[in-house]
Amino acid sequence: MEWNAETLQFLSHCFLNTLSPYPEPRRAAESRLSEASDRPNYGLAVLRLVAEPSVDEPIRQAAAVNFKNHLRSRWSSSDEEPNAQPQTLAPDEKEQIKSIIVSFMLSSAPRIQSQLSEALGVIGKHDFPRRWPALLPELRLSLEKAGEGSDYATVNGVLSTVNSIFKNFRHQYDTKDVAIDLKYCIDNFAEALLMIFKRTAGLIDNIGVSGGQAAILRPLVESQRLCCRIFYSLNFLVLPECFEDHMGEWMGEFQKYLTVKFSVLEDGGGDGLALVDELRAAVCENISLYAERYEEEFRGYLSGFVETVWNLLVSVSASSGRDRLTVTAITFLTTVSTSVHHTLFSGDDILQQICERVVIPNVMLRDEDEELFEMNYVEFIRRDMEGSDLDTRRRIACELLKGIGSNYRERVTQIVSSQIQSSLALFSENPTANWKHKDCAIYLVVSLATRRAGGTSISTDLVDVESFFGAVIVPELRNQDVNGFPMLKAGALKFFTMFRDQISKPIAMALIPDVVRFLGSDSNVVHSYAASCIEKLLLVKDEGGKARYIAADISPFLLVLMTNLFGALGKPESEENPYVMKCIMRVLGVADISREVASPCITGLTSVLNKVCENPKTPTFNHYLFEAVAVLVRRSCEKDPSLISAFEASLFPSLEMILARDVTEFFPYAFQLLAQLVELHSPPISQNYMQIFEILLSPDSWKKSGNVPALVRLLQAFLQKAPHELNQEGRLAQVLGIFNKLVSSPSTDEQGFYVLNTIIENLGYDVIAPYMGHIWASLFSRLQNKRTVKFVKSFLIFMSLFLVKHGSQNLVDSMNTVQPNIFLVILEQFWIPNLRMITGSIELKLTSVASTRLICECQALLDPSVGTLWGKMLDSIVTLLSMPEQDRVEEEPDVPDFADNEGYGATFVHLYNAGKKEEDPLKDIRDPKQFLMASLANLSALSPGRYPQVISGNLDPTSQTALLQLCSSYNVAIV
């Protein structure tokens, strides 16, 4: 794409239309840009458009975003999935972009500058510093010139870019290469960083933190914040000598920014206070880093910072909207509390103050918490129940208590227990006005509970769980008003869920109907917590791994439970509630499902399925939905086969709709459910299924890698249930074509063997014999060209299965038809050396029995001229059967899974409840060791004196010893 007036006009017009409020021109423009992005120098042309002053700023800004995203997808190719990656930029285009992007970025307006800074960071992630040595000197020179001229728009542009590049050091291990790169950055930028930091500090001092104009002070504060973030990156892995030498200068300014008040910004409205708090938070992160990693060097500054941060925290805790600063400040105190300097917190009065002035104010519910609870239940639960709230005031305050408690456990327990009782007393005085105090008490108990080592059980020293549950939690659960004080109800349900192991079964059983009632709450959080509570209760195990709650326990209220669960899915914003659907799945997996329950459940689930097909947007919910359908089908039909036809009538329209509407996200699920239905169905297979069989055999169905495992699963079901139909109308040739395609690629060869093994198991040799030459040719080609450990093991298992199903002679003859005597070559080069690598109980039995039959029945191996081969084969069989897996199986290199693609709908997700049952092809043989010894004894009796000599000459000493032990164990002799 050449840069000329025509290109300028084309790109300007396209980016203008991407801003259109109307979908048609917007989509058309996006499509044209997508096509253009494949042309050489597209990225360079867009960058030139961004820098073109004659173009309106909104268009240039849209182009800057596009340029950044273009670089993200095309600057560096992915080795994991090369076929799915767009073509990377040509080296010449990359070099041209790198030569101009810094100057373009520094001369741009702030919003465009931020996008180009991120784009530059993308390049830097891959090329800096080794493939872009000119970048840092150019940035440093720009910073020094801008600093001398007090041009803080440019200063902050440079610092923002450097911050974007250097933050990579926060996510890397301290390897030799990383250490070299870090040293290069420190040598070339640390001095300039300190210079601009001190220069800016001087300007702030001259202006005066209380006077001056906000417009002048704002970029200076932002500059210091960026300097602090770069400081954090450069100090993250090691303490550089230049920072240690100048620690006093850095720490003096850090101390200042935590103590002074920037009145003109903080009291001036707008985002001034947030800007200053961001600087303070950056300082807190820096001193936390030093306190944690460079304790000795930081020792002299520690107590002063503890006092400063404490004073700051007491004032900040009372303010709303200052969460980030509060969290980083508490994190610093928590770091100190677990260090050797924990004695700073040893005084009883200090512990009391921390609890009263920091912990309780931050644990107490705030207006923002209530708003989140009501307006965004998904985010509230993510923070509150799922542990993603480490950056929230409530959780970090409790982390501070845990930190102090690691050294002063008894005193912390005593103080917090007293605070809990005080909060509950306040609630008792006026429950309506003081309900938040009870919530605070419950939150403290739950958040400070500890998980017992090696288990899932939760314990606490703060209260006696049973008495607290009875006195504090049960009254909330018994409350008939499911909508009153919903945050308190949610806390009670969370407590029940957390301490479910400690609540005795009789007490829990008496309360489950109340929890079921809360499924009808209008609060999304409350009915989600109720569903989660029931789901988690059904997972509780007693000693010995026995489930505490069984089908009989939930039968009395099963119908109302299922009714309320489906009712919860009808609540606004809970139509795709993953907690409710997971509970439905769990209940169906435990309950005794009668026809009276199964019928409304399948109706309800298919109704939900039809709705989500219109716009699949919640992957977790959708997965639990399909698991719920699968477990309902499996457990109902196993108990009452007459339900199969009813389920087919309900499910088929939905599954056909998924295929007809091309709902690709659901294809793997649909194929797995169809496989489950086929397996449950008794032959002959109905015409409905045979129509799907035709879709299955279409090459187009197999193009998307994410569908392959599910398609193979469905194909296996058809091969098992309809082997005769398979051998009609050329279908077997089509199936073998699918096998051939799958087995030719290392990413899908295992799936190809699943297909092949199922054919071998379900069709007679007379049917498959005409095709065996082509099958062996495909397998030999892979052995020769793209052999992997995984392929060889699968190949060995296939040969073993073929032998036990169709006999050793057919195996030998069909292989030798491809090439004379190739069987013995395969045996020597692949079967014998890799037999010991087999894992899995069924696979081990299959391959050992097949190998035993080879050396005891196959004429090709009974010939005295191949005695050495016979002996080495026995050596491998004995090793396989006698040596522990960890001693005989070498670590094999990881082969990237073909399904490890990114993006919803691109991957195969296994349905546990629709899984294929593993079949044992040798049910009549229980002990492969016994089979080996009996077979050897019978063989040796036919030729006395021959085999002991072969054994002593070809088995290594370890195997000979193991064989003797087997002879003794099974009381047989090899004569």
Describe this structure in words.
This protein is mainly alpha-helical and 975 residues long. Among the domains are: 1-77 and 86-127, no CATH class; 131-294; 464-662, Alpha Horseshoe (Leucine-rich Repeat Variant), CATH 1.25.10. The protein is built from 50 helices and two strands. It has a two-stranded antiparallel sheet with strand order 1-2. The model is unreliable at 78-84 and 891-906 (pLDDT under 50).
Annotation keywords:
single chain; 975 residues; mainly alpha; Leucine-rich Repeat Variant; globular; XPO2_C
Record the strand order, biggest sheet: 1-2
- Topology-level CATH name of the domain at 464-662: Leucine-rich Repeat Variant
- The portion of residues forming beta strands comes to under 5%
Give the termini separation: 83 Å
Q: pLDDT under 50 segments (min length 5)?
A: 78-84, 891-906
CATH superfamily caption of the domain at 464-662 = Leucine-rich Repeat Variant
Radius of gyration (Å)? 35 Å
Find the structural class using helix and strand composition. mainly alpha
Number of beta-strand segments:
2
Task: Give the overall form.
Answer: globular
Helix share, percent: over 70%
CATH architecture of the domain at 464-662: Alpha Horseshoe
CATH first level of the domain at 464-662: Mainly Alpha
* Average of per-residue pLDDT values: 89
Separate helix tally = 50
Sheet with most strands: 2 strands, antiparallel
Subcellular location: Cytoplasm; Nucleus
GO molecular function, one term: small GTPase binding
Family: Belongs to the XPO2/CSE1 family.
InterPro entries: ARM-like, ARM-type_fold, Importin-beta_N, XPO2_C, XPO2_central
